[in-house]
Amino acid sequence: MLFRSKIISFSLKLWHNNFKEKDIILLAINIMILYYQDILNAKLERNIKIFKNEIKQEIVNKNTIYQLTKKINVLIDTKEKINFNANSQLLIDKLIIELERCD
User: Fold this and answer.
1) Of 14, 22, 58, 96, which sees the most CB atoms within 10 A?
2) What is the pTM of this model?
3) Taking CA 77 as the corner, what is the angle to CA 54 and CA 95, rounded to the nearest 5 degrees?
4) In sequence order, which residues have a C-beta less than 8 Å from that of residue 29 and are 6 or more positions away?
5) Residue range 28-86, pLDDT digits in tens
6) What is the Cα gyration radius of the chain?
7) 76 CB contacts (<8 Å, ≥6 apart)?
8) Are the CB atoms for 82 and 90 separated by under 8 Å?
9) Which distant-in-sequence residues (6+ apart) come within 8 Å of 48 by Cβ?
10) 19-52 burial code (b ≥16 CB/10 A, e <16)
11) Taking 60 as the threshold, does the pLDDT of residue 3 lie above it?
12) pLDDT per residue as tens digits for the range 35-45
């Protein structure tokens, strides 16, 4: 549990240090959505659309279809809230924690 909390803490610092503006945050979330969609496609043995060389088989194997769809839905929900001008920093904190819970 301590290791997991350190990872979450590191992820939050990394995110907040590199993604500060709304349009950059939305771009990063869109990329994450596309990445998880390609992982889901790989899991379902469909064509991978964008990240053909970046998909790691261990990520595909580690996640269930339910976990992947949950992660995609969390990202979409966060993106919608950011578009409605909600507090981006708090939403990103919540996003990282929710993505961790999907595992």
Assistant:
1) 96
2) 0.83
3) 65
4) 75, 78, 79, 82, 95
5) 999 999 999 999 999 999 999 898 888 788 889 999 999 999 999 999 999 999 988 77
6) 14
7) 33
8) no
9) 38, 41, 42, 55
10) beeeeebbebbeebbebbbbbbbbbeeeebeebe
11) no
12) 999 999 999 99
For tokens 């240090």, name the residue: 17
Specify the residue for token string 């997991």: 4
Joined tokens for residue 15: 């995110």
The DSSP line for 60-97 is HHHS-HHHHHHHHHHHHHHHHHHHTT--HHHHHHHHHH
Mean pLDDT of the chain: 86
Q: What are 34's two structure tokens?
A: 């596309």
Rounded Cα distance between 24 and 101, Å, is 24
Please report the sign of the dihedral spanned by the C-alpha atoms of residue 87, residue 5, residue 34, residue 27: positive
DSSP, collapsed to helix, strand or coil, labels residue 6 as: helix
